[in-house]
Amino acid sequence: MAVVRKGVVVAELLNPDEAHWLQGKARDVRQGFMGPKRKAAFVEFLARQASLDEQ
Question: Residue 5 — φ and ψ, nearest 5°?
Fold first, then answer.
């Protein structure tokens, strides 16, 4: 479901499976633009982050 104001999507409600899939795709795209060192540092940074269950 999307929330639209004046013809512009301002929010979209997703079920948890769709949100998880979209998050993974976005991460893959971001990492695709990084050099090898920066990508490795980003993966390490993500690994140190608390999971959503811990927050």
Answer: -130, 120
What is the rounded CA–CA span in Å between residue 4 and residue 45? 34
Task: State the DSSP string of 24-44.
Answer: HHHHHHHHHTS-HHHHHHHHH
- If one counts every other C-beta atom within 10 angstroms of the C-beta of residue 3, the result is 10
Pairing of β 8-12 and β 2-5:
antiparallel
DSSP 8-class letter at 48: H
pTM score of the predicted model: 0.40
The pair phi, psi for residue 11, each rounded to 5°, is -160, 150
What average pLDDT score do residues 2-17 get? 88
